[in-house]
Amino acid sequence: MQVKPIKTEQDHERVLKTIERLWGAPEATPKGDLLDVLITLAEAYERIHHPIDVPDPLAAIRFRLDQQGKDYTSLIGIIGHRTRVYEVMRGDRPLSLDMIRRLHQRLQIPAEVLIKPSKTRRSKPRVA
């Protein structure tokens, strides 16, 4: 196979099929080297044409709690007292910088996920 840049979806599909065919090729062999190059090209193309959006911070917290078999009560002391935990997890109150730091340190959630504004934040009705 001649290695060329991936410019179209058809090129991308062709490369993915070749990667699948070469998967498991031993390293430091011509097929293994070709596999490494094609994976690099496919990743570069996907980063530009199929970006993955950072998840919602509250969804990320829920996911991590679910992974660990925990519930919201385990956030007491990380986010604050019980009422504060429920305000945050309902979307009524944004995460503060200190909350983000503690969630990052204790639950190992990437900070770039936690600083993103939550989509589940409730908007308060305007008072006329």
Write the layout of secondary structure elements.
Elements: H1 9-22, H2 30-49, H3 57-67, H4 82-90, H5 97-107, H6 111-114
Q: Beta-sheet strand percentage? A: under 5%
Average pLDDT number: 91
Work out the number of β strands: 0
**N-C termini distance:** 68 Å
Please give a quick description of this structure.
With 128 residues, this protein is mainly alpha-helical. The protein contains 6 helices and no strands.
What does this structure look like?
- By secondary structure, the protein is mainly alpha-helical.
- 10% of the residues are buried.
- The protein has helices at 9-22, 30-49, 57-67, 82-90, 97-107, 111-114.
- The chain is 54% helix and 0% strand.
- It has six helices and no strands.
- The longest helix has 20 residues, at 30-49.
